[in-house]
Specification:
about 220 residues; 3 helices; Jelly Rolls; globular; about 40% strand; ten-stranded antiparallel beta sheet; alpha+beta
Length: about 220
């Protein structure tokens, strides 16, 4: 008698220490590029972003490269903590990573009624220093948000349903978790579908980061 559990999707979250100070620093960085990015929509309804695959602004990415302590708090420590939690619960297929790099980082600002349709952050693998890095983790850092509930929803679409489960389309609405709010970091697989539902109070700002990893 036995059972084998296949790897599955997850969403891990934790609150960032010294969030208010980090927020102040990031808002100052965003202020310097807001005018340049205000007309960049890239799939957003009622909002703007520094994400532009054709002409990527490197301000946020360079900030993480030049500020290791903040990078540790927002990216590397949460990823390590997520992996520990997942591997404790898995009897098979632990996550084994040799090395990880930040492939991209950007901010998104939402006006009243702002939203973003379902999407993933999957992309092509990259080669660096004779290693292959594939999309592994995506991160959302809720930098500024006066809304009562967080607007991010994650989903396993019906096309990926498991026949034994009652729900063919499985959703996780983070707005139902009071702990997930401004100052929270969300870590999830880059392949997991997610969206931003209508933002009621304008001024919601998030920092998004894509991490690529080389596995053992």
């Amino acid at each position: 008698m036995g059972i084998f559990h296949f790897p599955g999707n997850f969403v891990y979250w934790e609150n960032v220490e010294n969030h208010q100070e980090i927020k102040r620093i990031f808002l100052n960085e965003i202020k310097n590029i807001r005018v340049k990015c205000k007309n960049n929509k890239s799939g957003i309804i009622n909002g703007s972003t520094s994400y532009n695959p054709d002409n990527f602004d490197l301000t946020i990415l360079d900030f993480f490269k030049n500020n290791k302590l903040i990078g540790d708090k927002i990216i590397w420590n949460p990823i390590d903590n997520a992996i520990k939690q997942i591997n404790i619960q898995r009897s098979q297929n632990p996550i084994n990573i040799i090395d990880s790099i930040i492939s991209s980082a950007w901010y998104t600002e939402y006006d009243e009624g702002g939203s973003f349709e379902y999407h993933t952050h999957l992309n092509h693998s990259i080669h660096k220093d004779n290693k292959i890095y594939i999309p592994s983790f995506s991160i959302i850092y809720i930098l500024n948000d006066e809304n009562k509930c967080n607007a991010t929803t994650f989903m396993n679409p019906a096309s990926m349903y498991v026949s034994t489960e009652e729900l063919h389309e499985c959703k996780f609405k983070t707005g139902h978790i009071n702990e997930i709010k401004e100052g929270t970091v969300l870590v999830f697989p880059s392949s997991l579908y997610h969206c931003v539902q209508n933002v009621k109070i304008p001024g919601r700002i998030t920092i998004a980061i894509n991490v690529y990893s080389s596995h053992s």
